[in-house]
Design goal:
Rossmann fold, alpha/beta, homodimer, 209 residues, two-stranded antiparallel sheet, 42% helix, seven-stranded mixed sheet
Chain lengths: 209, 209
């Protein structure tokens, strides 16, 4: 079943997952393609097309079963396979993510943080130990984390990504606003761009005038 | 021209803007629907359909002019109309955003920050003054900021959003992971969900195995 899902649909699945999770939290068990589309800013026919790949779901007049669809999307996105992560940069942004982001819910265990600040090294943030960033290479060589989260100052982004790749990192979650794609093609990189949601807000405000 | 752009396309425009900005920064002036689609995880035909709304762009065999398309998208998203913003919560996440996010590039001036921490009140973060959060209502009544950025602990999210709405805020940029939609229908809310990009990374890692 999984092989039929196109790359384009894959990129949209996390948004479906977020919205379906919200519906699940609200106790909603079924939703129509029209209502789901309205919530997500898609047309009903786009929703039907995207979710068609899963087969068996969404019979005419019944709507989609929220739980079943969430499970299927979670499996395709491999959220059910627990992976390990390290975060490099335990400053403002790094601390905020360590303290507030639910790694576990998204299939990750955060095993260590790294920083250059002597005041942070040796401490714990929400139970995650903070190590000297100079120990990053040794730690990764010995512990093989799956993902590196980049929350350090952007001038160190390329160097840090290089170390992680040397040590066989499998993916990079990049908050530094530096485009790393060109440097390390073999390792997938995902960038968090705050700007996109602010642009949507900008549009909505303009519309309300 | 603007009236022809559907809500569904609007929601995707910020992603086009981000990717076209990257191309512009790289000095690329034209791009085909195929190449742009590859970069964004969309099919060439989806790109052509989405950008059709602008008319006049993307003649067969010529590709899209990057600068012209960026300008058009910027106008539709009202990025060219400068708006003011206040940020509530100058802790880890708030400081990280104040220090690193380019509000100006996205059409916003950040005019003030608010916090409850006596150590922060009266200081400046990257030139932005930090005021006592108890002064939020008075400040907003007098200065009419357009947008409120919520980076405070989530337990204060609803109360703060309520104050902002009382004072006529035009939009809320919400980092607290609390769904505010239901409370304040008249004011648009945009939520930043870190999880979605981590889910894409999870998929890409699974794929590489």
């Amino acid at each position: 079943m999984e092989k039929k899902v196109s790359q384009a649909v894959i990129r949209r699945l996390p948004r479906y997952h977020t919205h379906l999770s919200e519906l699940q939290d609200m106790g909603i068990t079924k939703i129509s393609s029209k209502d789901l589309g309205d919530k997500m800013g898609l047309t009903a026919s786009q929703v039907r097309q995207d979710l068609n790949c899963f087969g068996g779901f969404g019979q005419q007049g019944y709507g989609y079963p929220v739980d079943g669809l969430l499970d299927s999307i979670g499996q395709i996105l491999k959220l059910d396979e627990m992976k390990s992560a390290v975060i490099i940069g335990a400053g403002n942004l790094g601390s905020a993510i360590i303290n507030n982001f639910n790694f576990f819910k998204n299939g990750f265990r955060l095993v260590a943080a790294f920083d250059a600040d002597p005041n942070l090294i040796g401490t714990e943030i929400s139970g995650v130990p903070v190590y000297d960033v100079r120990e990053l290479r040794e730690f990764c060589t010995n512990n093989h984390p799956d993902v590196g989260v980049l929350t350090m100052p952007k001038k160190f982004a390329r160097e840090t990504a290089g170390i992680l790749c040397d040590c066989g990192i499998r993916g990079i979650w990049n908050f530094t606003n530096i485009d790393l794609h060109l440097d390390i093609d073999a390792v997938p990189v995902e960038n968090v761009h705050f700007a996109e949601s602010l642009m949507v807000l900008s549009y909505k405000i303009g519309e309300k005038k």
